[in-house]
Amino acid sequence: MTEETYAIAVTVNGVVYHRSVPGRRLLSDFLRHDLELTGTHVGCEHGVCGACTVLVDGEPMRSCLMFAVSAPGHEITTVEGLGNTPEAMNPVQQAFIECHGLQCGFCTPGFLTTITAYLRDHPDPTSAEAREAISGNLCRCTGYQNIVKAVLRAAEIAREAPAAASTSGGASA
Amino acid sequence: MSTRQFGAPVQRREDPRLVTGNGRYLDDLGHTAYECAFLRSPHAHARIVDIDIADAFEVDGVVAIYLHEDLPGAVGEPLPLLIPHPALIAPRTGYCLAKDEVNHVGEAVVMVVARDRYVAEDAVARIQVEWSPLPAVVGLERAREAAHLVHEEAAGNISAHLLQSVGDVDAALASAPHRLTLDLSIERSACMPMEGKGVYARWDAQDEKLRIYSSTQTSTGVRAAVAAKLGLPLAKVECIAPDIGGGFGAKIMHPWPEEVLIPWAARLLGHDVKWTEDRREHFISSSHERGQLQQVEVGFDDEGRILALDVKFWHDNGSYTPYGIIVPIITSTQLLGPYKPRSYRVEFWSMYTNTVLVTPYRGAGRPQGCFAMERTMDAIAAQLGIDRAEVRSRNFILPQEMPYDHGLMFQDGRPLKYDSGDFPASLAKLKALVGWDDFAAYREQAAAEGRRVGLGIGCYVEGTGVGPYEGGHIQVETNGRVNVATGLTTQGQGHQTILAQIVADELGVPLDDVHVTTGDTRRMAYAVGTFASRGAVMSGNAVALAARVVRAKALRIAAEALEVSADDLDIADGIISVKGAPDTRIALSTVAVLSNPLRYAFDESAKAATQFAGTFDPDKPPIADDEEPGLEGQDFYSPTQATFANGMHAAIVETDPVTAEITILRYCVIHDCGMMVNPMIVEGQVHGGVAQGVGGALYERMFYDESGQLMNASFMDFLIPYASEVPHVETDHLETPSPLNPLGIKGAGEAGTIPVTAVIASAIEDAEGFPIRSMPINPSELWALRREHSQASATKESAP
Ligand code: FES
Ligand code: FES
After folding, report:
1. Three-class SS of residue B393?
2. Is the distance from CB of A69 to CB of A131 less than 8 angstroms?
3. Nearest to B729 among A138, A140, A143 (CB)
4. Which atom of ligand 1 is least distant from the CA of A45?
């Protein structure tokens, strides 16, 4: 028995990819293994850890809870789309480095996408709001303290250089 | 001399790669590899009667299906016992694929190799197994009753029994003015790294060579194990630990069955093969830790000084003991913390149960030991009506008593001898940080508002940096690039940064020129691994020693080229110059050229070196007898014993008078890991450790039903704390250098986790006014305890 596949065209980080996939292929697997965009990580495959968070039309979404075949018609942004080289990092990526917001780095892409979207809508959060904003993502290494710090620092960097911040969100509205 | 890097909060060298999606974790590799899925036992204890795989073979895309009977030679034999011990009287290890019998839910039984993971799982679902279930032994009480046995040959379900004692405990107990007994328990949790395990293997048929990538804490260990199992020369096997998404202990265990099976299948099939553990697999087929029952009897004087400490405990080791009895040995020795009881006896039994096996999890038996000791301290204080911090300080080993030999044998088989530490200073810092002496007023004020608060404390000592050794290899390229290799692996501790800091200082080169490789057997074949908070101590000192070798060689060559004495030279920023005459200089990159008589002018350094060519003695060989070509060197650091870090934590908690909800209001840490290479990274380790400790104290537990099913094997049901549950951690440091190693450092990786359960128990006890003897604790358990105690006191009051 051979599995039926569907031809899809998916826009990821502004690039349109044409692929043929089985209906059950998860968006996370599609991004990671079909497109080889391995920045998006999978920590639980059941929607709890947030490591697989990508932006779908600018909104954080767990790519392990979405099928690739439901992605056409949407703009997907992965961590690679936030800034794929050390020279082109967005404020959140910069802030994570400055604040030691990552250790093993496995959870990090999910935090980066989540926080990027959050700061777009809430450019000046308090420390408590920043903590709340990241409390849907699991990190086993950092204890979150420096991630909270990084959210605040990213907001600061974005304010210092507003032009850079608005392009680096990666998701056009 | 350029800015000293050691001690500076240098930003991490690994981060630009990791934040831009350019990390390379195990499952990021091998996109064209075959993928595997396993049929895992649904039973905690059963015999395998029959396995029918015919239907599974019908699935399109299935490549191979293997049972135990398909495994040849050593691959089919039991997995190795890594750390034997005379007290381990009935060791048992499993097989790569279960043979005849399964001993826990999750044990691998059938391996399917397929085009992709989806197809492999389809096939697994079609495999029919006929089981003959056996009675399951779940939990330490059932194991102790021994009505049923996990392994026939382990009588009483006991794998190991060990007793150590110092002094005459019985006599001291009999004559002690005060005595107390405590029954304590701690439940299981697990490492739960965000990235599970994973193995990817490539067989190169032309070179007859195997390359293994594993999400492991020891690539040298995996390499040797696989070479032995597959009967390959060590020289034909290489193992690389790529970026690792956290370890915390589970990945120091090796070889996991998959680490043998995936390379074996890759070689057999002549095709890349990969397996990436999913979260449920991680819950039911990796490892857990912490489960213990403890009995403490303590005798003490009117001042609260411990005269006799008598501890018995039962340790749940799960279904097999491949990692030996390291965890209970650590509990039994590190229980003593910063204290010096006049006599001590500890006896433990390590018990088999039909559950996931138990191997070290961050803290590795210390959190349980700390819990026993610190609960005891609080009980003594309560009994005598003395301040809890005061009782502790009266039992402290004092700085002038260092080095302090407890007279026990530690986990490394060497004496438990503390090298350094200043416990009274740590306590003073902690009391100041948390506002110990002002707490009574705060409690009163809170009570006036109808709030219930408590203050808790916990102290620990951690033996870190256990041997036997780690190595460092350093090579300076002719363009000035400094390549550093050490064999232990990295799971987020920032080794690429801290080791570069150390080498930059020792060698006198810019930090940016230093490039560190870890966990790659192609670059460093001798290594032990990352565990026991040993990364910075072991590899830090190893690369420092290697840098000194290279530095000496560089100075020797430069001295000859500049025609001065090596003693007159200094290196800074990659330039060697004459002290007091900085214009007489030579670049380290040029020295790298001079170090190799085969001097093809490939690069600028080589051309620059021609001016130093000088004259040569035709009677001498181009390379002297005691020299080697190249500006490189290697050295190993091998300590006589562990170095002991320590710390003290305090927490303020609030418990809701109605709902019994528990909130941590403040969490304070004093930490002494000797000299800090990078305080930013040390702080990060402490934060993360505390967060894991909070999980273990309030949220995480493995919930097994009586048939041995793990009922909460997902992140939905096993509650790892989110940011909303983890308190802000306030830290202060003490730096008592270790006299044992050249850099004066002690390990920091596990420290944050060790005392948290004890501290939170202490704080809840303080808030509630009744003893907390069992952890973790959730609101409904606290609520039930309240009812028990109010009923008990009501009965007492109504009694005549
Ligand atoms: S992998 Fe998607 S939420 Fe965990
Ligand atoms: S940095 Fe390791 S899980 Fe977050």
Report:
1. helix
2. no
3. A143
4. 1
Amino acid identity, residue B311?
V
The total number of structural domains that make up chain B: 3
Largest CA distance in chain B: 108
Ligand 1: nearest atom to the Cα of A64? 2
**What are B720-778's pLDDT values in tens digits?**
999 999 999 999 998 888 888 888 888 888 889 999 999 999 999 999 999 999 999 99
- Domain housing B123: 32-134+197-276
Tell if the CB–CB gap between B687 and A146 is shorter than 8 Å: yes
User: In the numeric block, which tokens belong to residue B662?
Assistant: 């528990």
CATH of the domain at B203: 3.90.1170.50
Q: Tell which one of A26, A41, A46 to mutate to probe ligand 1, the residue whose CB is within 8 A of the most ligand atoms.
A: A46
Pairwise CA distance, residues A117 & A147, whole Å? 15
In chain A, residues with a C-beta closer than 8 Å to the C-beta of B118 are: 22, 24-25
List the one residue out of A66, A164, A53, A169 whose CA is nearest residue A117. Answer: A169
Tens of pLDDT, residue by residue over B148-207, are: 999 999 999 999 999 999 999 999 999 999 999 999 999 999 999 999 999 999 999 999
Q: Which two tokens stand for residue B210?
A: 């195997």
**pLDDT at A56 exceeding the cut of 60:** yes
pLDDT (tens digit per residue) in B527-550: 888 887 888 888 899 999 999 999
Whether residue B666 is found in the same domain as residue B704: yes
pLDDT digits (tens, 9 = 90+) for A59-107: 999 999 999 999 999 999 999 999 888 888 999 999 999 999 999 999 9
pLDDT band at B800 (very low <50, low <70, confident <90, very high): low
How many Cβ atoms are within 10 Å of A88's Cβ, its own excluded? 13
List phi, psi (to 5°) of B670.
-110, 130
Q: What is the mean pLDDT of the segment spanning B352-371?
A: 96
CA atoms B275, B290, B160, B85: torsion sign:
positive
Is the same domain home to B386 and B487? no
What confidence score (pLDDT) does residue A172 get? Answer: 33
Does pTM surpass 0.80? yes
- Which overall architecture, per CATH, does domain A5-81 show? Roll (3.10)
For chain B, the residue count is 800
Structural domain boundaries of chain A?
5-81, 86-163
For B170, the token pair is: 């019985």
Q: Which residues on chain B are in Cβ contact (under 8 Å) with A32?
A: 27-28
* Cβ-Cβ contacts under 8 Å, B494 against chain A: 103
Alpha-carbon dihedral B12, B16, B18, B22, rounded to 10 degrees? -150
pLDDT at B680 over 60: yes
The whole-angstrom separation of Cα B655 and Cα B761 is 12
Residue type, B611: Q
Task: Tell me the H-state helices in chain A.
Answer: 27-29, 79-82, 91-98, 108-121, 127-133, 145-160, 162-168
What is the architecture of the domain spanning A86-163? Orthogonal Bundle (1.10)
Structure tokens that stand for B182 in this block: 């405590």
CATH number for the domain harbouring residue B304? 3.30.365.10
Residue B203: inside a domain: yes
Amino acid residing at B76: G
